[in-house]
Amino acid sequence: MDFPLAWIDGSERITTAPFVASLVVLIVGECCLYVELAGRVLGTYVRTPSRIILRNIIVWLACAVLAVPFLLALTRTGDGAAIWLLLSSLLSLLIIVHFLFPYHFGVRRIDCTADAAGERPLVPGVVLRRIATEAKLPPEGPGSLRCLVLSDLHCRWRFSVNKLRAALAALPDERYDMVFVLGDLGESPTRLSEVMQAIAGLRPSYGVFCVRGNHDYERRRPELIARLAKENSIVLLSNAGHVVPGLGIEIVGLECPWHCSVLPGRPQATFAIGLTHTPDNIMVFSRLGVPLALAGHTHGGKIRLPWIGSFPVPSKYSRLLDEGWFQFGNTRLYITPGLRHFPGLLGKPGVLVELAITDPTRKSA
After folding, report:
1. Model pTM?
2. From CA 255, how far away is CA 278, in angstroms rounded?
C-alpha cells in the first residue's frame, strides 16, 4: 500500500512505514500533551462553567496545533511532505521526552536528609507513614518535634467520617507536638463539625494548625470551617503566619490560588514551617524564606505506571509534583497523598503522615 505523501522513493510515491511510524509517534505525543496540559491548565481547579469550557478549549487547541505538521504532510509530495513529516515527529518526540522526564523551573525531587522510616497499618485501608527530616530548630524549644500531617480527608459520608475516627484512634499513644491539616476536609457541611471535633480530640502539645483547600472554598464552607476552627481551638492560617509560643517556630499558611488575599511577610521566627493545600506554592514559600513546607492535593497522582510515574496530577507544574520530597531554592516540600476518597477501596491506601523533625546539632529534649 502506498500513500501520495511524505517520504519518497524513486517513483516519488510514499511507502507505508514512515507514514505509520510518524502517525504512531504523533498519537503518543498527543496523549502526552493532553495529560501534561490537563494537569497544568485544569489542575488549579476551576468551578465556573465558562472557565471550565475556556480551559478545555485551550487544551484541545494545543493538541490540534501539534497535529498541524502531520496534516500538512498529507497535502504535500516529495521533499515538502518529508520535511513536514519529520517536523511532526520531532515535535511529538520532544513532548514525549518532556513527559517522561519532567523538570520544571528548578523544582526537583530529592531524598531528604533523613529518609522515610516506614509505614504501619492503622485500620483497613489506612496507613501511618513515618518520615523524618533534619533542621536547625530554635534554641528555646526542644531538639526534636513529632508532628501529625492530615490532608485530603474528603469526609462526605458517614463511612469516611468513621474511617477517619478509627484511624485517629489507632494512632500511637504518644502525644504529638503539633497537628497540621492541609485542606479538603469534606464536601458535606453536616460532616464538617464531626471532622473538626475528631481532629481537635488529638490535643497536641502546641496546637492544631489548618489551611483550607479547593473543596473547602465551595459554596459557604469557608465561613463554616472558620467558625468550626475557632470553636475547636484550631488555628486557621489563611495566608498568614503564627508564632507558636514556647517553640519559637512560625507556622505559615497559604491558601492560594483559591483565596488570593495579601500574602504574609517573611517569617519573624528563626525557623518556619509552611502549610498549603496545593504544592504549587513551593515557589512562594521559597520567596518567603520558609525552609520546610507541607502540601497535599495531588492524591499521589490518579494513576501510577512503572518507569513512567504518576499522571494526571492536578498541578500547574504537571505530573512532577505528585508525592514525596521536593526542593526549590532553600525550601524543602513534602507532598502527602492524604486520606483520599474511599481510602483502601480503589487499591490505594489512605495515608496519615507522622513527621519527625530533629536538630542534628542538639540532643532531643
Report:
1. 0.86
2. 8
Q: Which three cell numbers stand for residue 254?
A: 497559604
Q: Under 8 Å CB-to-CB from 294, ≥6 apart: which residues?
A: 149, 151, 180, 182, 273, 274, 275, 276, 333, 334, 335, 336, 355
What is the mean predicted confidence (pLDDT) over 19-35? 90
Cα-based angle 257, 260, 262 (whole degrees, multiple of 5): 140
CB 180 within 8 A of CB 204: no
pLDDT band at 43 (very low <50, low <70, confident <90, very high): low
pLDDT surpassing 90 at residue 58? no
pLDDT at 115 over 60: no
What does 242-272 look like in DSSP terms, one character per residue? EEETTTTEEEEEE-TTTS--PPP-S-SSSEE
Q: Which parts of the chain fold into alpha helices (H)?
A: 16-42, 49-74, 78-100, 158-169, 189-200, 221-231, 282-288
Whole-angstrom distance, CA of residue 232 vs CA of residue 154: 19
Structural domains in the chain, sorted by start:
3-100 (no CATH), 108-358 (3.60.21.10)
